[in-house]
Design goal:
- By secondary structure, the protein is mostly helical.
- The protein has a domain of 107 residues.
- The chain has 12 helices and no strands.
- The radius of gyration is 36 Å and the shape is extended.
- It comes from Microvirga aerophila.
- Its main location: membrane.
- One of its GO terms (cellular component) is plasma membrane.
């Protein structure tokens, strides 16, 4: 059936279709030979560039490398102050070093610096307060009032380093508490994949470092302690003491029990991970529930006077115009 189309035209269309098909097939087969593939050359260029950058950075780091020390020495002035006032006995109990480690300061140097700061800061604050009260302000109050102000400022200077450390601990614990459930999930995955606890801690510290540097440091220290301390239980307990968080202490207890009795760790970590996530959610809900009472005072002080002014002002203007 040609549907009224002449036979000659059908033959022409068939020939054209055959020619197009032959041309397309030939082009498809010969395309890899006609178009040059630059991927191999580009990959070689990238590899050469990466090697060049690596050599350049290694040369720069070798040129800037300084003798590294894991233990920093305190300044000579601070050491002399601590020795002169016999303040070293305050650090013998270990509570001060534990508090500083919770703030992220480790070693003997932060302890000496903290003890010296509690001596230097009150003296500096006392001198500044006396200069400001007696010379700059020249208050007309009795001498006893002026001395009381100076003593109050000096007392604030004495407790200033302690307040700074406490604030540092609070901020650090907040950051670690937010990142701990994610780290616990990663630890659970690593443990269930068959990793040892040292490898799991090392892997989690590498992965969680972009989210929480403080937690990555603590897990790295725990990995090192697990490798070098003779008692692995002490390494777990040190992790709980350095952070001071109940969620981490619960995980530490599970790790110690698994180490002692050989109990499966995966189920415990799964339950603890869910509990930590629930705790984080409950804290967020608690903050959200406390928001309306906190907004009451700003609304009364700032919004209601403006609202009353907008409502009452037109009526006052109309009354004044009628009079």
């Amino acid at each position: 059936m040609n549907f009224g189309i002449p036979t000659s035209e059908i033959e022409v269309l068939t020939a054209i279709s055959a020619a197009v098909s032959v041309f397309a097939a030939t082009l498809l087969v010969s395309w890899p030979y006609l178009i040059r593939d630059h991927l191999g050359a580009r990959m070689t260029q990238v590899a050469n560039e990466r090697e060049r950058i690596r050599l350049r950075e290694r040369t720069r780091m070798n040129a800037q490398r300084k003798p590294a020390s894991l233990r920093s020495e305190p300044k000579k002035l601070y050491r002399e102050i601590v020795d002169r006032f016999n303040l070293a006995r305050q650090a013998e109990s270990g509570d001060l070093a534990k508090m500083l480690s919770m703030a992220g300061f480790r070693g003997q140097s932060p302890v000496v610096t903290y003890l010296a700061a509690r001596v230097i800061t009150p003296l500096v604050m006392c001198v500044l307060a006396a200069f400001y009260v007696f010379i700059v302000l020249q208050l007309q109050h009795p001498l006893a009032v002026k001395l009381a102000i100076v003593l109050a400022v000096s007392l604030l200077g004495y407790y200033g380093p302690w307040l700074f450390i406490k604030n540092k601990i609070t901020k650090r614990q907040t950051v670690i508490r937010r990142a701990w459930p994610d780290a616990l999930d990663l630890l659970l995955i690593c443990v269930e994949c068959g990793m040892s606890i040292e490898s799991a801690f090392r892997k989690v510290s590498e992965e969680i470092g972009s989210q929480c540097t403080e937690l990555a440091e603590e897990l790295s220290l725990t990995t090192a302690e697990l490798s070098y301390l003779p008692d692995r239980r002490k390494a777990y307990e040190n992790l709980g003491e350095r952070t001071g968080l109940d969620g981490i202490k619960g995980v530490v207890t599970s790790l110690i029990q698994a180490e002692k009795y050989g109990t499966p760790l995966g189920h415990s970590l799964r339950v603890l991970a869910q509990e930590n996530r629930d705790m984080r959610m409950s804290e967020a809900e608690k903050k959200a529930a406390a928001l309306p009472p906190k907004l009451t005072v700003p609304m009364i002080v700032f919004f209601l006077p403006v609202l009353f002014a907008v409502i009452i002002t037109p009526a006052v203007i109309q009354i004044m115009a009628m009079q």
